[in-house]
Amino acid sequence: MPNKRYDYNEEDVYKILNKDVKRKTVLYARVSTHKQKDDLQNQIDQMKQWCFMNGFTINAIYSDTSSGISFDKRKGFFDMLDEIMDNRVEKVVITYKDRLSRVGFELFIYLFRKYRTEIVVISEVGSTKLDSDEVLDEIASMLHYYSMKMHSKRRDHSIEVSYES
């Protein structure tokens, strides 16, 4: 039964009209704790400067203060992902791979490519890293994450013990 509404893909309509859909360049920044608020702003400033120097127009900035492994509280990430899955994003600019995710970065590359979105990692532009270096970087990142997690647990435990004393 007609409801006078049509479901269509915006990109297909633009193709029929011989017009290109303007896809966005977005920035994504993340820090783990609120104490790193200054670092979050530094990441954003660094990306803005890099985009300016490389001729990219920034259309949106997404950011989160949350773990690089957990996605529980990453509203900015999911808002950005919705835009990507709507085919509205051409490039996602990040400072380092681990700002997007500490694990499984290749999964995001694969997923974003499905939506014709490129991930630009500023720290790796022009880099000639070997695959073995990439693996070592990921292992180092995981070790850092878990050592910080253990340190936090020890710190929290020592606070509890001092309260009991």
TrEMBL record:
Originating organism = mine drainage metagenome
Q: Which SMART domains match?
A: Resolvase (SM00857)
Task: List the GO biological process terms.
Answer: DNA integration
CDD domains per the UniProt record, alphabetical: SR_IS607_transposase_like
**InterPro entries xref list:** IS607_transposase-like (IPR041718), Recombinase_CS (IPR006118), Resolv_N (IPR006119), Resolvase-like_N_sf (IPR036162), SSR_resolvase (IPR050639), Transpos_IS607 (IPR048046)
Recorded GO MF terms: DNA binding; DNA strand exchange activity
**Any Pfam family:** Resolvase
Please provide the record's keywords in A-Z order: DNA integration, DNA recombination, DNA-binding
All copies of domain Resolvase/invertase-type recombinase catalytic, residue ranges: 24-165
Recorded protein name is Resolvase, N domain protein
